[in-house]
Structures are given as C-alpha cells and as structure tokens.
Amino acid sequence: MKSIVKLLLIIIIMPFLMSNSCNKSDKKQQISNAVIDKNFDYSFNISSYQIKSATLKDSLLTVSIIANVCENDNIELVFNGNYLKSQPPKAQLGFRFIANEKCKNQQITRIFNVSKIKYMGNKTTILLLPGIEPITF
C-alpha cells in the first residue's frame, strides 16, 4: 500500500516539477511600446550600440542590437516627436538604456510597438534608425 501511495505521489508531483523548469526557449518575447520624449536627442548615445537587424510587421518593430546590456536590462526605443519635413514624413528613432559592464557586446533582440509613431494623416511614415536602411511603415 505504501509503495502505491509513493508511486501516485511521484506520478502527480513529477509533471508539476518538470513544468516549472527554467527553459529559455519557452520564454516569450515581451512587446514594449515605443516612447515619445520631446527632450530625447537620438544622437546622444548613438556610439554605444550597433543595430544588427530590424524588421517591421504590422506595427511591431523587431530590432537586434549589440550593446553593453544584459537580457533583462531596460531598453527603450525613443522618438522625440519631431518628423523630418519630407513626403512621406520621416521619424528619427534611437535607443535609451544604461550600459551594463557585466554584459559587454551582447546581442539583444527586442520587439516594439511603433503604432504611436506613425504620422497621422499619411499612409506612410519612414522610420530612420542609425546604421541601417530606412524602414517604410
């Protein structure tokens, strides 16, 4: 009888323990909203990161950067609210973060909702990120 109880406990508890294991591949990518900050100067820390890739799908911009940041550090995509006078309008974007010396030259991928950046009244807005080709939104 005791062995049956032990067996039942193992059968019940084992799946629970296995489901709580830490596995990076199961981690969902969090979506952050782009920040609009009128005082932001996109050129301020432009030399502290390198953009490796950027893709836009609907209103979600997926960007991979190399910088002195760790996976859990806060990274913001920032727009100062001023569009370059052109047709279509252009929005110059940059990143804001605090460098973390524990993680040097790490490649980090983030997803940002850029819907607030689209110029009202135009079908198209061009997103400008340093070091890569313009992105049509």
Short summary:
With 137 residues, the protein is mainly beta. It has a single domain (26-136), classed as Immunoglobulin-like (Sandwich), CATH 2.60.40.
Describe the structure.
This protein is mainly beta and 137 residues long. The protein has a single domain, classed as Immunoglobulin-like. Helices cover 13% and strands 37% of the residues. The chain is built from 1 helix and 9 strands. A 5-stranded mixed β-sheet has the order 2-5-6-8-9, with no helix packed on it. Strands 1-7-4-3 form a 4-stranded mixed β-sheet, with no helix packed on it. The model is unreliable at 5-9 and 14-27 (pLDDT under 50).
Spell out the key features of this protein.
137 residues; mainly beta; Immunoglobulin-like; five-stranded mixed sheet; four-stranded mixed sheet; 1 helix; 9 strands; 13% helix; 37% strand
How far is the first residue's CA from the last residue's CA?
67 Å
CATH class: Mainly Beta
Number of domains: 1
Based on the structure given, which CATH architecture is correct?
Answer: Sandwich
Oligomerization state of this entry?
single chain
Radius of gyration: 22 Å
- Number of strand elements: 9
Tell me the overall shape.
Answer: globular
